[in-house]
Amino acid sequence: MSHWREEYFLALGVRDAREQANAALYDAYTRLADRTSQVHPHSHSPTPTTPAAPPSQQQQQQDQEVLLTAARADLSSAQRSRTELLEKLTRTNAELEKLRKKTQTDTRRIETLLAERTQLQTRVRDRDEELRGKAKLLDDVQAELVSINLQFNMADQRAQKLEVENKELVDRWMAKMGSEAEAMNRASKFS
């Protein structure tokens, strides 16, 4: 279960390391911007040159102006880049927080589902045992019914046999009694 979580945290660590690798560069640009803004609070307009300056000094001032303009452009670019990075960092932090909350919610949901699954598995095992017990009981009842039916059939056959024997005995007895009665009747007529 923690496999995906480990991969996620590893990816966050790689991302943090990549962002921290440029932290020194960000700090250097920030310090440069702070120093430049302190030295030249209104540095957007070029400094006026004095007309009485000699040509070499004027050239130096122009070179300084070019360097200053380039530094201001670099500073402005760095400031824009810093602002963009801060905005991206804010968005990334918000997304990270949102994902962390979602991860916590998902983790709680997973734990709930795991507990429910365990409970259902236990209930299924209990039902399986109950069904096995009932199936065995049914088999026993069916075997008992077969045995009882067999005994009943045997008893029925015996009863039929005894009935036939009884009828034969009654018929023989009746025939015997009939012949004795006739013999008595004949004997009494002649006497």
Automatic annotation (TrEMBL):
UniProt xrefs under CDD domains: Atg16_CCD
Coiled-coil segments: 75-116
Region listing for Disordered, in residue ranges: 35-64
Domain Autophagy-related protein positions: 7-185
UniProt entry tagged with the keyword Plastid: no
Keyword entries, A-Z: Coiled coil
The UniProt record lists the keyword Hydrolase: no
A matching Pfam family: ATG16
Family (UniProt): Belongs to the ATG16 family.
Entry protein name: Autophagy-related protein 16 domain-containing protein
Lineage summary: Eukaryota, Fungi, Dikarya, Ascomycota, Pezizomycotina
